[in-house]
User: Fold this.
Amino acid sequence: MMHANNSHCLSQLINTLGLQFPVGRIGRYLRNGKYAKRMGAGAPVYLAAVLEYLTAEILELAGNAARDNKRSRITPRHITLAVRNDEELNKLLVRVFIVFVNCLYFLLYYTLTLPLLYLLIL
Assistant:
């Protein structure tokens, strides 16, 4: 439980940092997730700052990819290109699969697996 002066200092820190991500909601998710018995007051602030930085980095690279393809909107394909072309983000998100990047792949996958599923049901 935080004391009154700690919450005041924490709110000042959040205002100073100018974070856009919801620090209170992240703190609530950390508490409800029971990841640890105790949690420091700065943990949700730090996590919000890290998530905001990663999001800004990915969106900047995806915006560059969209501009290179002469598009004004960022699509999942641009996000995938941004992540896979950056060495550090690719290493971080190596097991992440971004959905709806290539519809042809999904059509091929379901076309090939449906007969097998049909045979398994019979």
